Amino acid sequence: MPDERPSVLIFQDLRFCQESAPLWSTQFSPTNGMETTGYMPQAASKRPALFTVYEQDICRTNCLGCGHLQALTVLEALPEFCESHDRRIDRARRLPRPTNADMLRPDRDDWKESDRPMAIERKRWDALSILNLARGFQESRILLTAVELDVFSRLSEKAKSATDVARQVRTNERAMTKLLDALTAMDLLTKRQGVYSTPASVRALLTSDSRQSVLPMALHSAFVWRSWDHLTDVVRTGKRSSTQTRQRDKKDLESFIHAMRVIASPRVVAQVKAMRPGKPKRILDVGAGPATYTIALLNECPGARATVFDLPPVIAIARKELRQAGVLSRVSFVAGDFYTDSLPEGHDLALLSAIIHQNSRKENVELYRRIRDALVPGGRLIIRDHVMDPARIRPRAGALFAINMLVNTEGGDTYTFREIREDLESAGFSTVRQTRKGEMMDSLVKARKPKE
Question: Based on the structure, what is the number of domains in the chain?
Answer without folding.
Answer: 3
